[in-house]
Amino acid sequence: MTPTPSVDLAPYTTFGIHAVAEYFVSVTTIDTLLEAISWARTRGASFHILGGGSNVLISGDVQGLVIHIRLQERSASVEGDVVTVRSGAGENWHQVVTWTVERGWAGLENLALIPGTVGAAPMQNIGAYGVEQSACFHELDAMNADTGEIKTFTKDDCNFGYRESIFKRELRDKCVITSVTYRLSTVPTIRASYKDVTEELAVRGITQPTIMDVYSSVVAIRTRKLPDPKVIGNAGSFFKNPVVSAQKATTLHESHPLLPVYPQADGSSKLAAAWLIDQCGWKGVREGDAGVHANQALVLVNHGSAEGAQIIDLATRIQQSVFDRFGVELEREVNVW
Ligand code: FAD
Ligand code: NAP
To answer: Residue 254 is part of which domain span?
Structure first.
């Protein structure tokens, strides 16, 4: 394990922003992960964990060691109708989803085509089309960065919430997820009530969808609708959809009847951040190479050679204008280094 000095991180993140890591190493085994963390510690250097780089904005050159997680393993066991699937943290998320759906194992099909690695999925409890990974999460293993010990976290330990987990909060930078285990089923529960999925299935003339139908519909919708980082640098939704009290949502809805409001099980209400940003006139705005996507106001983009600081400056002004107009605070979803 010999870290490489001065590595440009642009090819390692979907934003494609140029910034230099002081040191960089890819790890493919638990032992080299441990070695990499010790290497940083003995030099008094910080370390940063990088998966697929699809939820990271790098604000400038990175001091210390960037550890690129490439832990690969995949196994499955079937008992009755329960399928237990374990995957290394460095596996590509979409490839694992595809592998399960092709075998008729239900649970992850709505989460097809989300970029990134399996190890980062619990980090923000990834979700799409009405499903979060927590729905079929079983447990994960994570290395304690101080002691090097591997601990198993059950679902209850992870404090999953809307784009949230203990790893994004209390345990941020304190442990490295090394593998994740999901409990899937050979008896599918089809979740197709999300508007875009329902419409796509209807267009295809499918009335009794299989998990493969849901999977391929989600792939088609995403390919058509979401900005491809290979074409334009981005990290998906830059902000979380704000969750406010039902009372605040009602007040806002009275003054802005077109505001999409989604009541939550706990009595709160989720607002569509994209709508709020669009109303403030940001959709399609471009300042140099930093901008807001022309069709997706929630997605900030790098048109070519934007710097991280420019994107952050733009994001801060978007947050301020939404607050000034609606009294709603937008929280960043993307992790800023
Ligand atoms: P990275 O960006 O590499 O890392 C993200 C954070 O997790 C960093 O803070 C990093 O330090 C930490 N981390 C990464 N791996 C580990 C590990 N093994 N242990 C501990 N910490 C770790 N997200 C959704 O929820 N739903 C979507 O539908 C969705 N669609 C997207 C569409 C596009 C076009 C893009 C660009 C992004 C989208 N995202 C979506 C965001 C992103 O894909 C997910 O958050 C994904 O899980 C990030 O994975 P990654 O491996 O790229 O993580
Ligand atoms: P969309 O369908 O245009 O919907 C816009 C927003 O409204 C979404 O953020 C979604 O919240 C919310 N919404 C729509 N229908 C809902 C319902 N029935 N109940 C509750 N909330 C509802 O969204 P999109 O931009 O095309 O994205 C499609 C899906 O992919 C969404 O689930 C989105 O979260 C996910 N996605 C996420 C990212 C990311 O980086 N996090 C990037 C691209 C796409 P939710 O976000 O809570 O679903």
So the answer is: 233-336
